[in-house]
Amino acid sequence: MEASQGDILCDIADVLADMSKAELLETWKVMKKIRRRVGEAPEERHAQILRHLRDGPVVKLGVSPIHGVGVFAVTAISSGVDPFRAAVSEGSKGSNDEYEIVSDKELLEVSPEVRELCFSFFAPFTTTEDDYSPEVGEDGKIYPVNATGLNTLDVSWYLNHSECHPNVELVEPKGPGEFNTYRTKRDIQAGEELTIDYHQLGEAYYNRVMEAPVHDAERRASRDDQ
To answer: pTM here?
Structure first.
């Protein structure tokens, strides 16, 4: 006899009730992925892609007058929008931009080159939203490392720093295990570089990046930026 929907829901509820907080968090992530897989039809996704290509926002990497590589607007971008938003909606993404927590102790097990790359891109967690001091536990600082690895970082990771006139700001994550997003602070013209104030990423990250040698390829900002 096939189980009814009510019986299935009761069984699921019983299993969830016995889970720890960590197990519930992992289950929640899996449920989000399942929901995405049964989301929008391919035709709807196709329409969203075309709308994205037509209306933007579209950005690209380019040589920056601030330092090294920077992010530039290909299309004009209005104030108050996420310049890196996906071409398709949350329901039709293949995977979300999520992170795994990695500690200083765990990073000692990887090569120095990979470790430095993590330090360059992933700012350590801070104690509170109002305090930019890094959170330090038994295993040192902890970092939100991209859950899909270092080879799938999107262009937002290349935002350069502006001390005085950033045109993009940080937006806090919507849920557990997710990265922050971004929002433009004003209208941005096509061809203009997008910048953010690295102070928003925490003082530990800001100081590390700003104190790196000028020839260091991982330094992506300048104190003199206006």
So the answer is: 0.58
